[in-house]
Write a structure and sequence with these properties.
Layout (H helix, E strand, L loop, with lengths): L5 E5 L2 E6 L4 E5 L15 E5 L22 H13 L4 E5 L9 H11 L3 E6 L6 H7 L5 E5 L5 H7 L3 H14 L2 E7 L7 H10 L5 E5 L11 H13 L6 E3 L22 E4 L4 E3 L8 E2 L5 H9 L2
Parallel strand pairs: 4-5, 4-11, 5-6, 6-7, 7-8, 8-9, 9-10
Antiparallel strand pairs: 1-2, 2-3, 11-12, 12-13
Length: 300
């Protein structure tokens, strides 16, 4: 049985969200008093672990060992849910290497009204995980950097293996593809759209490479070519762009006033809350909880 809409009030009005269907309805004709605004970010990403068996050069995740304590994590989920958060996205590292992932997803799906998503490289999705996650996850994001030989050069994994995993992933929940864009992967964009269409992806999220680990990120010429590709795009798969690199693109922004930490925050695998996964600075979440740390972060 589908749950009713979750209600979130904020500076842009009243948001009605159904995590089972993905339907969002924003009633923006009503001015909501500030004292009634949701106090949690609209969406929070949570790095469950730093562990990953890949070593992609563009990855922002720290390389020292760390993982979140399950009891603390479940407490945070309850607090975020009660404070108006709409959804949480589990990541890492590689979240499928976090042994408690099925239990955490089950808890969130059955004990909160949060939409549950996670981002994965996909290679550990098997029949066991499909059975454990099905019904407890509302959306999955699969990282795909290039197609064919390009993907294999970056990920050091067979592209055919990823395609096989798509068959399993779509049995769990609707999924989208996270596509890193740099000089190497840009030429494969059309092929990526073909793959996304063939395997039933709901969305193609374009993520221009950011400067991390001594890399400069996407260069200006490649970014300009990406803008030209987006402007001429006529494919059937919806495309979106990561917010951190959305300047210069025509984007639809429903929440004009709910920005910054009201819109998004990131919790890393050591329990530090940050403005984004790329930030080096943040505030450790203590016994007082997520919102206390969030308030401290807002005043840094």
């Amino acid at each position: 049985m589908q749950r009713q809409f979750k209600i979130r009030m904020g500076p842009d009005g009243i948001l009605l969200f159904n995590r089972d269907t993905g339907i969002n309805i924003l009633i923006d004709e009503i001015k909501i008093p500030q004292k009634l605004w949701a106090t949690a970010p609209r969406h929070v990403s949570i790095a469950l672990t730093n562990a990953c068996d890949l070593d992609c050069p563009h990855c922002f995740a720290p390389k020292y060992p760390a993982k979140l304590d399950v009891k603390r994590l479940l407490t945070w989920l309850n607090e975020l849910d009660a404070s108006g958060c709409i959804g949480i996205g589990f990541g890492g590292g590689e979240p499928t290497l976090y042994h408690e992932l099925p239990n955490v997803c089950r808890y969130a799906a059955q004990n909160t009204d949060l939409a549950v998503t996670f981002t994965t490289h996909g290679h550990y999705i098997d029949n066991r995980l499909v059975a454990a996650l099905k019904g407890n996850v509302h959306f999955i994001r699969v990282s795909m950097d290039g197609v064919g030989a390009t993907y294999e050069k970056i990920r050091k994994r067979r592209f055919a293996s990823l395609l096989n995993r798509f068959e399993l992933i779509r049995d769990i929940a609707p999924f989208g593809i996270n596509y890193l864009v740099n000089k190497l992967t840009l030429p494969d964009l059309d092929a990526a759209v073909t793959v996304a269409t063939e395997y039933g992806a709901s969305e193609l999220l374009l993520i221009p490479e950011q400067p991390v680990r001594g890399r400069r990120g996407i260069d200006r010429q490649t970014m300009q070519k990406l803008r030209e590709w987006v402007n001429s795009y006529q494919g059937g798969i919806p495309i979106s762009i990561s917010e951190v690199a959305s300047e210069g693109f025509t984007v639809c922004t429903a929440f004009r006033h709910e920005t910054g930490l009201r819109a998004y925050a990131h919790i890393d695998s050591t329990g530090v809350i940050k403005r984004s996964s790329f930030d080096e600075n943040g505030v450790t979440i203590g016994p007082e909880g997520v919102l206390h740390a969030l308030n401290m972060l807002e005043h840094l």
